[in-house]
Design brief:
Number of helices: 2
InterPro entries: DUF4133
Protein name: DUF4133 domain-containing protein
Strand order of the largest sheet: 1-2
Structural class: mainly alpha
Distance between the termini: 51 Å
Keywords: Membrane, Plasmid, Transmembrane, Transmembrane helix
Organism: Hymenobacter qilianensis
Largest sheet: 2 strands, antiparallel
Shape: elongated
Strand content: 5-15%
Length: about 60
């Protein structure tokens, strides 16, 4: 008969790289999605990649 360990994290909040709770994880995902959509909008508008890429990277690293 095999040994199955108990899941001790059943009632603990979700944690991702130090961020605890689903609210902060959703904010992180929303922010990254916004930066990505902003990059796409600038690229489709015809701005140079040499301009859009640093703007998107700066917006992503700002937070």
């Amino acid at each position: 008969m095999g040994h199955y360990p108990l899941n001790k994290g059943v009632n603990k909040p979700v944690e991702f790289k130090g961020l605890v709770g689903s609210r902060y994880i959703l904010l992180l995902l929303g922010g990254l999605g916004g930066v990505f959509l902003g990059f796409i909008a600038l690229h489709v508008a015809g701005l140079s990649s040499y301009l859009t890429l640093p703007l998107a990277m700066g917006a992503g690293l700002r937070g």
